[in-house]
Amino acid sequence: MLKLRLKRVGRKRAPSYRLVVMENSARRDGRPVEEVGYYNPISKQCHFDIPKIEKWLNYGVKPTETVFNLLKKAQIV
What we know:
By secondary structure, the chain is an alpha+beta fold. The protein has two helices and five strands. The longest helix is centred in the last third of the chain and has 9 residues, at about 50-60.
């Protein structure tokens, strides 16, 4: 089953996340199917590729709880 979730990048104590579509059984920093955005929790900066996210949501991909809250805040969902 595919999920829309966060993949951690960045260095220690300075996290940054990429919003990716990946298999739910894959490890957190594994190979994604597609990258559709990024989120920086320190500066609260985010960028989402809205057409790609909507395409994957129409395919039936479920976002995680955190991703759902980010998308709701960005008024995508």
